[in-house]
């Protein structure tokens, strides 16, 4: 997704094989659309048979959508939506039937297995797997011995449903002057609620009704379950007259805005803060959320900045949830943004934490150099920066507009961290918790020599296994990238 006007200004487009990149925005694969509206990953085969949905089960094994989200969405729709005047009947019906499908499924599922039910907490209730208990975010208060069932009956959603008239009022009828972003699937409008709160209203605009519904539900499903200072905040949704996500407004827009489109150059101190904050947000998604969330589209346009330049990861349209027992996703279609795509994804469609780590490495290079991931001549930042990093020519990487106004120790750490994150072999890439240590100077030894790390230090991921099995070099990576570009642009 690009900023408004960003699609044609050299920002790398997000693509999907078999579909043209549209205004540089999100395009989802047919399989994704299908699966996201189907059944949750933690359904038993028996449940699925009851609903005659076995066929989808194989496809959506690792596809999760939060039980509480959609259950509650249904309640919201039934109880709060009042104004029908400008409702698009087809879209509202579509959302209702998606909710209804989920609702029916969840009723059955709830009835059949309270144990499984407790594996996914309702909104506003945090429960994390034992695996991550020690890593929990200490900022978030945890309910102690209360059971999931008790919590289910007592929890209140942390978001609300907006009527179309409320959204129209807030955005001055979605006035084009209030449009602050536009991508492949959505337009984003600045708005002001009656209580004075500034919001960003993301109106899903592109695609068929099914595609729009998928995009809306997928993103909502993640947004309602993440709660971290470095992830975007959902205030509510609106399903009349289209599908809308209402988010807290980020006054500075995205990092791409400030880094590439602004006359005023971003100071190094802010860039470093953005790097550390984004790493924090990703570490939360990968390692401290109740389910592992892979963002899949980390890039400068998807990092929003708060008033005091705290970064917030946004746009969860491509995000995937990985249950603990699932090592990875293998995606049949090609989605993402040129310039940020990890080799194993290009080659095998494999998605796990390390694909985000790779994209984060590219983001670090953008912060260091002030260059785009892919420039207007389609040259990749990766290919430009890698030889410089290999020769330890960090000074040559640095954005000339910074002059000498940067902390050289921070710069050094950022460059070396980037180098490790962009390793072709995902085995050699660190996890986000390690990235945090590297960036903040807590793991200097590893930063000094990314290739000499001890493998036993890392928990192995599927993409790591793959790289053990075969060699994937820069030439093959480039050829894969150009093949994918060809497919995307020729369509
Ligand atoms: N909460 C917000 N506050 C301020 N600006 C925002 C906010 N959310 C989005 N934007 C702006 O809108 C742009 C697009 O947002 P987003 O990436 O969520 O849209 P999208 O249509 O999902 O994109 P894509 O095509 O990648 O799917 C952002 O890069 C940012 O400039």
Automatic annotation (TrEMBL):
Keyword Lipoprotein set for record: no
GO CC terms: cytoplasm
Keyword annotations from UniProtKB, A to Z: ATP-binding, Cytoplasm, Kinase, Nucleotide-binding, Phosphoprotein, Serine/threonine-protein kinase, Transferase
Top-level taxon in the UniProt lineage: Eukaryota
Reaction(s) this enzyme catalyzes, per UniProt: L-threonyl-[protein] + ATP = O-phospho-L-threonyl-[protein] + ADP + H(+); L-seryl-[protein] + ATP = O-phospho-L-seryl-[protein] + ADP + H(+)
Residue intervals of the Protein kinase domain: 174-457
Record carries keyword Hydrolase: no
Biased composition (Polar residues): 144-154
Cell compartment(s), UniProt: Cytoplasm
EC number: 2.7.11.1
One Pfam family this sequence matches: PK_Tyr_Ser-Thr
SUPFAM superfamilies, alphabetized: Protein kinase-like (PK-like) (SSF56112)
Molecular function via GO: ATP binding; GTPase binding; kinase activity; protein serine/threonine kinase activity
Composition skew (Gly residues), residue ranges: 1-10
Family recorded in the similarity comment: Belongs to the protein kinase superfamily.
Subunit architecture: Interacts with ARAC5 and ARAC10.
Designated name of the protein: non-specific serine/threonine protein kinase
Native source organism of the sequence: Musa acuminata subsp. malaccensis (Wild banana)
């Amino acid at each position: 997704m690009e900023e408004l006007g960003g699609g044609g200004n050299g920002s790398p487009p997000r693509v999907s094989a078999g579909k043209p990149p549209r205004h540089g925005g999100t395009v989802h694969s047919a399989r994704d659309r299908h699966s996201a509206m189907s059944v949750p990953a933690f359904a038993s085969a028996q449940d699925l048979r009851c609903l005659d949905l076995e066929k989808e089960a194989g496809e959506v094994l690792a596809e999760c959508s939060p039980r509480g989200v959609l259950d509650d969405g249904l309640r919201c729709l039934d109880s709060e939506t009042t104004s029908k005047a400008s409702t698009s009947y087809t879209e509202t019906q579509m959302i209702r039937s998606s909710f209804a499908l989920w609702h029916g499924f969840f009723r059955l599922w709830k009835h059949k297995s309270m144990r499984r039910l407790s594996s996914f907490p309702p909104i506003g209730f945090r429960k994390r797997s034992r695996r991550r208990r020690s890593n929990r975010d200490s900022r978030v208060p945890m309910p102690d011995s209360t059971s999931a069932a008790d919590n289910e009956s007592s929890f209140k959603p942390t978001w609300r449903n907006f009527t179309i008239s409320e959204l129209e009022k807030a955005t001055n009828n979605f006035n084009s002057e209030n449009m602050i972003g536009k991508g492949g699937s959505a337009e984003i409008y600045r708005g002001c609620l009656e209580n004075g709160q500034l919001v960003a209203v993301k109106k899903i605009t592109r695609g068929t009704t099914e595609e729009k519904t998928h995009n809306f539900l997928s993103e909502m499903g993640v947004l309602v379950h993440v709660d971290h200072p470095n992830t975007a905040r959902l205030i509510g949704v609106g399903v009349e007259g289209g599908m809308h996500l209402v988010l807290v407004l980020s006054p500075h827009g995205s990092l791409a805005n400030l880094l590439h489109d602004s006359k005023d150059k971003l100071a190094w101190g802010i860039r470093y803060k953005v790097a550390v904050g984004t790493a924090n947000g990703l570490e939360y998604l990968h390692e401290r959320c109740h389910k592992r969330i892979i963002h899949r589209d980390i890039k400068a346009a998807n990092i929003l900045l708060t008033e005091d330049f705290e970064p917030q990861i946004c746009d969860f349209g491509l995000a995937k949830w990985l249950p603990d027992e699932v090592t990875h996703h293998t995606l049949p279609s090609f989605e993402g943004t040129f310039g940020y795509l990890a080799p194993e994804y290009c080659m095998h469609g494999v998605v796990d934490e390390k694909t985000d780590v790779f994209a984060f490495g590219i983001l670090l290079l953008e912060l260091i150099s002030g260059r785009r991931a892919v420039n207007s001549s389609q040259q990749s930042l990766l290919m430009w920066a890698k030889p410089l990093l290999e020769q330890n020519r960090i000074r040559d990487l640095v954005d000339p507009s910074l002059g000498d106004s940067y902390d050289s120790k921070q710069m050094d750490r950022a460059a070396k961290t980037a180098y490790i994150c962009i390793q072709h072999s995902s085995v050699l890439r660190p996890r986000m918790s390690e990235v945090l240590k590297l960036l903040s100077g807590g793991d200097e030894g590893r930063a000094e020599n990314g290739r000499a790390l001890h493998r036993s230090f890392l928990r192995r991921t599927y993409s790591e296994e793959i790289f053990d099995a075969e060699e994937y070099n820069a030439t093959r990576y480039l050829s894969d990238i150009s093949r994918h570009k060809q497919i995307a642009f020729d369509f």
